[in-house]
């Protein structure tokens, strides 16, 4: 049972006890309530690994299936830190079904691994740092070297971070700074292709 559940159960027990018998001195009840509040405030939930966070978000179910098919789960659960530009389910649905099926098959594992590692960067880069790097890079954009060795170019368009892959395809960052214990996730609306 996690600490938050224990704190909530303790607070509930205190509330039930307070209702069951009325204390002669209200300061005793205030002290008990303050102690329960302090326990609840002291409880923080540590985020899981990148894979665990993705597994907990239904918008990343196709990504989780792809990571599993490529046997990258243990890598993305490792120490890191990593920045993952995570395609949402809607992004994967833009890829033709026949192509997705081929990539998820044993024969497509190598290509799938190359595509997925094209979405991973070493180090944890929050959105604020990425935006500063883009602004400092000038009009050509900020070049990002991914784990697979290929590059993405990050630019600002209409106030949004946009990634451009080697083929000129663009993906917009739709959600930023999803924290994980071994890095950070930024959701994107298109699957990037390394070549």
The secondary-structure class comes to alpha+beta
Q: Could you describe the largest sheet, including whether it forms a barrel?
A: 7 strands, mixed
The amount of helix comes to 40-55%
Query: What is the CA-based Rg, rounded?
Result: 23 Å
Secondary structure layout:
Elements: H1 3-20, H2 26-42, H3 50-55, H4 61-69, H5 73-76, E1 82-87, H6 89-94, H7 97-104, H8 109-117, E2 120-122, H9 127-137, E3 142-145, E4 151-157, E5 160-164, E6 170-180, E7 183-188
Parallel strand pairs: 1-7
Antiparallel strand pairs: 1-2, 3-4, 4-5, 5-6, 6-7
Helix pairs in contact: 1-2
List keywords for this structure.
45% helix; 7 strands; 195 residues; disordered N terminus; seven-stranded mixed beta sheet; alpha+beta
Description:
There is one protein chain. With 195 residues, this protein is an alpha+beta fold. The chain has nine helices and seven strands; from the N terminus they run αααααβαααβαβββββ. It has helices at residues 3-20, 26-42, 50-55, 61-69, 73-76, 89-94, 97-104, 109-117, 127-137; strands at 82-87, 120-122, 142-145, 151-157, 160-164, 170-180, 183-188. The protein has a seven-stranded mixed β-sheet. α1 (3-20) packs antiparallel against α2 (26-42). Residues 1-29 and 31-43 have low confidence and may be disordered.
């Amino acid at each position: 049972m996690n600490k938050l559940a224990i704190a909530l159960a303790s607070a509930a027990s205190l509330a039930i006890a307070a209702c069951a018998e009325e204390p002669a001195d209200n300061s005793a009840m205030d002290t008990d309530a303050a102690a329960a509040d302090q326990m609840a405030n002291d409880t923080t939930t540590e985020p899981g690994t990148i894979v665990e966070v993705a597994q907990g978000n239904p918008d990343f179910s196709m990504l989780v299936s792809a990571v599993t098919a490529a046997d990258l789960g243990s890598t993305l659960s490792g120490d890191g830190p990593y920045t993952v530009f995570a395609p949402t389910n809607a992004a994967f649905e833009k890829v033709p079904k026949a192509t997705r099926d081929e990539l998820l098959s044993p024969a497509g594992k190598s290509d799938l691994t190359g595509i997925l590692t094209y979405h991973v960067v070493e180090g944890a880069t929050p959105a604020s740092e990425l935006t500063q790097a883009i602004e400092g890079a000038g009009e050509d954009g900020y070049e990002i070297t991914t784990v697979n060795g290929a590059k993405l170019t990050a630019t600002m368009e209409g106030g949004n971070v946009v990634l451009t892959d080697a083929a000129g395809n663009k993906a917009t960052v739709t959600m930023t700074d999803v924290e994980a214990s071994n890095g950070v996730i930024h959701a994107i609306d298109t699957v990037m292709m390394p070549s």
